[in-house]
Amino acid sequence: MTSGLPASIRTGLAVAVGELRRRHWLPVTIGYVVALVVVAVIYARVGGDVQARILADTSTNLDNLRHGRIATLVSSAFVIGDTDSTITNVPLAACLVALVELRFGALRAVWTFLAGHIGATLLVAVGLWVGIGMGWLPGSLGDSEDVGISYGVMALFGSLIVVVPRGRRIAWGLVWLVIAVQGVVDDRDFTSVGHLLAYLIGTGIGALMIVRGRAAAYRLGWFDLVPVVAGAALAVSFLLN
Fold it and tell me: Which residues cross the membrane (predicted)?
């Protein structure tokens, strides 16, 4: 069908089709969602003692980190301790991850997620270490359950500021910052602080893309509004739950 076209046009079409296939394969989104579902099914089918062991071994709490269990910084992102929330959170997270992967690419989606998940976790851990050491916080917080997708998700959501129309970015960023701060004020726990930090990390990544002049390339289309709404719903559930 394209044999009659000039070679340069045929080459351009081949490159465009290849790019379309590569982009819409979504390896990060599919791989992460499959992993979450597999872990969730296993977690739901085992007994309470095994569930407690899983949470203890994968939590990025202060005790695990102090004992050198660095692998928990990754493993914790694949465990959702509340089986009921998995049913709603995983599909919503899939929409958000897919949007970021489509717009920014697979590698940027991965490192943005990890920057939020690991960065917020370590900052919270430092705060807990100082607070417990100074006697401001109870020592029991050192071995608290700390697993889930929320820090990484909040970073991905924060990075979306780059796709917000230029005249609305400040308002968008401030509204979500106020919501995140309100969550900290209401809950007064380290998880809420982690959500705030992860959002700020993601927003910083998005702001860096804006400074580098990449905002125009990431402009949203009408179809993108669906995953944006899904991401916003998930962010609200994390920040105000």
Answer: 25-44, 109-136, 148-164, 169-185, 191-210, 222-240
* Cβ 44 vs Cβ 87: under 8 Å: no
C-alpha 94/C-alpha 55 separation (Å) is 23
117, HSE (Cβ side, Cα atoms, 13 Å): 25
Closest CA to 96 of 214, 240, 212, 238: 238
- Say which amino acid occupies 172: W
Helix, strand, coil percentages in the chain from 3-state DSSP, rounded to 5: 80, 0, 20
Predicted confidence at residue 224, as pLDDT, reads 81
The CA-atom distances, in angstroms, between 20 and each of 103, 214, 228 are 12, 20, 21
Q: Chain-centre distance of CA 88, in angstroms?
A: 15
Domains defined for the chain, CATH in brackets: 26-240 (1.20.1540)
DSSP 167: G
**pLDDT at 7 (0 to 100):** 58
